[in-house]
């Protein structure tokens, strides 16, 4: 499919993967052999911490670990991936735009999704410097077309959250440092985030993502694709691809992992696009 630039002001920000304590301390060789991993720091409140894989296009992967897991952690489950807006777009403006879009036609497709007002977050990096942002999270309700509970074995993460910087973006995402963005695999950024949904709800989820992104997708047989610019390389479009389950493997994935992230494709300047085995790290 031919790629073309869009006029939207929504960007791919990062993708989040949860690790238990042991795997966080000693990362799987597939990660350590292919990527430069840096310490991110401890989040405000001291309950969680992260490590980062930063790409030169301004996107990144966040390796996330609970230091002390809250009792209600499933209700506080971090979203699987984040989008963002750059200055002068604020978190408040993003939230209001999305809420208005989800309340209008085509809206949320009857799935039951809206977005909460922004909440502030932050962490200290290893040098002790404060990094601050505002998060806009999706909220979920039971609605006429909400899929059955069996499609949410990990809780609902079928829509992205938004992360808007309050401190300079390159303080949170150090994509301007070659020592950080140079990876053994040659990875330079996120090429495609694939979202898997039940076939019967494909139209509803297409409507949801159209409302969230703010522009129509390119349509193909069995999937739609929303092209999004990366924050650090505005001349290139990555994409969100919404696809419905077609195979028994897809159906098994929905039963075990639920609606949401199915695969991640990274770009590389040495080996071409390659898939990250994301299912292994979705908890």
From TrEMBL:
InterPro entries listed in its UniProt record: Glyas_Bleomycin-R_OHBP_Dase, Glyoxalase-like_dom
Domain Glyoxalase-like: 12-199
Protein name: Glyoxalase-like domain-containing protein
Organism: Aspergillus cavernicola
